[in-house]
């Protein structure tokens, strides 16, 4: 997966945000941002795994035991939409407790599964 250029490098006329790479980039961004913002400092780690059906599993670990929550902020709120976006992008997501915090994972369906 290429990260070169970031979101601003895309063609502004293209509205195809359903590509697996776009969903993966957004999912990683939201989960890592949440881990950095709410993870009680320390290291944040993440991994990406793609299976034969092009499903991408994102795993992000941080040092906070608190599970993320899907919120529904008002239209003027400046934050609080991260897990709402992840839940919209992912076919499934969840949290695994770790001795030093937690791991949040999300599985994003690939092209072959029709999403």
UniProtKB/TrEMBL annotation:
Region listing for Disordered, in residue ranges: 1-32
All residue ranges annotated as the Histidine kinase/HSP90-like ATPase domain in the record: 21-91
ATP-binding among keywords: yes
Gene3D superfamilies: Histidine kinase-like ATPase, C-terminal domain
Basic and acidic residues: compositionally biased ranges: 15-25
One GO MF term attached to the UniProt entry: ATP binding
Pfam families membership: HATPase_c_2 (PF13581)
PANTHER family: ANTI-SIGMA-F FACTOR RSBW, ANTI-SIGMA-F FACTOR RSBW-RELATED
Protein name as catalogued: ATP-binding protein
The organism of origin for this protein: Streptomyces lichenis
């Amino acid at each position: 997966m290429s990260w070169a250029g970031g979101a601003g490098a895309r063609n502004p006329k293209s509205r195809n945000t359903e590509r697996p790479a776009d969903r993966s980039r957004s999912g990683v961004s939201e989960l890592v941002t949440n881990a950095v913002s709410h993870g009680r400092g320390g290291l944040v780690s993440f991994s990406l795994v793609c299976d034969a059906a092009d499903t991408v599993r994102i795993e992000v670990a941080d040092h906070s035991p608190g599970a993320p929550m899907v919120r529904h902020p008002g239209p003027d709120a400046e934050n609080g939409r991260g897990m709402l976006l992840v839940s919209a992008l992912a076919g499934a997501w969840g949290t695994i407790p770790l001795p030093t915090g937690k791991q949040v994972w999300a599985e994003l369906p690939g092209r072959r599964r029709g999403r």
